[in-house]
């Protein structure tokens, strides 16, 4: 969890500083380039990281074979990226996109080298080393490079070089903990085994990636880099709790799911506990962000970014839906149903593409609504699959999320009331942001400890039992007693 906190703070801090230096257009250029670089990174990995985590019996030959596959595919994709960079720039009508894509391909090759090393660290659930790898990469690589270059006037290149520096440092540290090794004579049987699982994961990931980025693609093509820059920052801010909280839990739970994949009852218990705890942690965050959207955007990024507010508020709805969706994929993969997930991702991609094309003439907020609608369909479809595989039902699935929804509703109502009382009375967006952060935090604590136990269930007690050791003994005892009895 400390790794998540450090990454989130660094990423958010750098974005706040740089967004006040660079215009939205620079962020739009990077977002356009990353559509293709991010896709190539997924294909380059070819599911090898997930494959080495999931395999019950992993020997040295399999590790070397996985590294060989990752490197070969990475080299081929870098060559392809270099070839298509100019046609891509022509397609988007901006010659600046080509050079950005070509330089970013460096990070693609480096990431391919470290995919298996990182997967092996994750397989051992060595989260201390993952913390070191990611924290140093973000603090030194991203924060240091981006801010310095932005201040010196390098524009979009500060974002590009920060991305590369983060990948390079992270890969070097991964090699320190799990040295890179490959083979020039891979066994056919190992190739088949790794490609069977890794290929399924990769195809599903590729389709999912297309779906997650089709909104960026459509905006970049039919609007302009400024609109894409506004949308990308709104999406990035919503994605912070998704990528850092749920994304981290996904990595952890995939390892845990794989260990108990043959015990359906234990798998069901672990999955529902993760969903319930994550909902309690993050649902109130998204609702608070939605209600206070105007002051979050302008208070953090400045008035130049006010055009991102409507899209940001709409995308907060997507965050609520996608949060649980992110947690569902690993349990389906752990049970070996990667192709069932892939089919649903394909349908999702088709639905989302059509919706975004229809919506884009109305602006970036309308595209946000298209994303919400398509994500809701995928959520229902994936949840239904997981429920069937775990021999559960929709009532149980909704019940474990109920405390999160109740606490989110309480936080949202309190935030809305405070905004209504202060509307037009405070001119400073930064001060209003601070007030709303304090309000949301207090509302969360009051709801967490004050809502009746009959409504909140055992989730608050479980959270305190798991993490309460970090509190003083007296406060821990009071908190445990409070959530056990509630306020009747």
Automatic annotation (TrEMBL):
Arranged from A to Z, the UniProt key words for this protein are:
Cell membrane, Membrane, Transmembrane, Transmembrane helix
How would you describe this protein's topology in the membrane?
A: Multi-pass membrane protein
Q: Name one Pfam family in it.
A: Polysacc_synt_3
Asked if the keyword rRNA-binding belongs to this entry, the reply reads: no
Tell where it localizes: Cell membrane
- Extract one GO cellular component term from the record: plasma membrane
What are the TM regions of this chain, as residue ranges? 29-53, 65-85, 100-121, 130-150, 156-177, 270-291, 311-335, 347-380, 400-422, 431-451
- Cited InterPro entries: Poly_Biosynth_Transport (IPR050833)
Q: Which family does it belong to?
A: Belongs to the polysaccharide synthase family.
This chain's protein is named Lipopolysaccharide biosynthesis protein
> What organism does this protein naturally occur in?
Pontibacterium sinense
């Amino acid at each position: 969890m400390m790794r998540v906190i450090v990454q989130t703070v660094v990423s958010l801090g750098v974005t706040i500083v740089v967004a006040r230096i660079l215009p939205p257009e620079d962020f739009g250029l990077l977002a356009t380039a990353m559509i293709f670089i991010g896709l190539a990174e997924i294909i380059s990995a070819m599911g090898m990281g997930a494959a080495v985590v999931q395999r019950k019996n992993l020997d040295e030959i399999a590790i070397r074979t996985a590294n060989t596959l990752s490197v070969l595919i990475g080299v081929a994709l870098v060559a392809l990226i270099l070839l298509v960079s100019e046609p891509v720039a022509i397609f988007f009508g901006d010659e600046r996109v080509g050079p950005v894509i070509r330089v970013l391909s460096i990070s693609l090759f480096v990431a391919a080298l470290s995919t298996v090393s990182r997967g092996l660290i994750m397989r051992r659930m060595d989260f201390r080393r993952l913390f070191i790898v990611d924290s140093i990469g973000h603090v030194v690589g991203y924060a240091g490079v981006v801010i310095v270059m932005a201040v010196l006037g390098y524009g979009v290149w500060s974002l590009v070089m920060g991305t590369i520096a983060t990948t390079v440092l992270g890969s070097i540290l991964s090699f320190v903990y799990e040295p890179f090794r490959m083979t020039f004579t891979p066994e056919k049987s190992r190739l088949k085994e790794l490609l069977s699982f890794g290929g399924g994961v990769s195809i599903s990931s590729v389709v999912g990636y297309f779906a997650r980025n089709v909104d960026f693609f459509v905006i970049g093509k039919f609007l302009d880099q400024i609109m894409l820059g506004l949308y990308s920052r709104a999406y990035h801010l919503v994605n912070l709790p998704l990528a850092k909280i749920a994304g981290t839990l996904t990595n952890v739970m995939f390892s845990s799911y794989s260990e108990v994949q043959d015990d359906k009852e234990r798998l069901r218990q672990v999955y529902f506990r993760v969903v319930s705890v994550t909902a309690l942690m993050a649902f109130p965050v998204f609702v608070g962000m939605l209600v206070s959207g105007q002051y979050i955007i302008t208070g953090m990024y400045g008035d130049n970014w006010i055009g991102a507010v409507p899209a940001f508020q709409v995308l907060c709805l997507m965050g609520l839906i996608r949060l649980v969706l992110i947690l569902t994929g690993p349990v389906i993969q752990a049970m070996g149903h990667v192709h069932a997930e892939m089919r649903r991702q394909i349908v999702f991609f088709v639905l989302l593409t059509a919706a975004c094309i229809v919506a884009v003439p109305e602006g970036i907020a309308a595209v946000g609504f298209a994303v919400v609608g398509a994500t809701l369909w995928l959520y229902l479809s994936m949840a239904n699959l997981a429920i069937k595989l775990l021999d559960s039902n929709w009532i149980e699935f909704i019940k474990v999320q109920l405390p999160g929804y109740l606490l989110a509703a309480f936080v949202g109502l309190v935030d809305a009331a405070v905004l209504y009382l202060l509307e037009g009375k405070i001119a400073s967006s930064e001060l209003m942001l601070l007030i709303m952060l304090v309000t949301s935090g207090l509302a969360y604590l009051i709801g967490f400890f004050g809502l009746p136990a009959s409504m909140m269930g055992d989730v608050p007690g479980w959270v305190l039992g798991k993490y309460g050791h970090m509190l003083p003994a007296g406060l821990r005892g009071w908190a445990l007693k409070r959530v056990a009895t509630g306020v009747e």
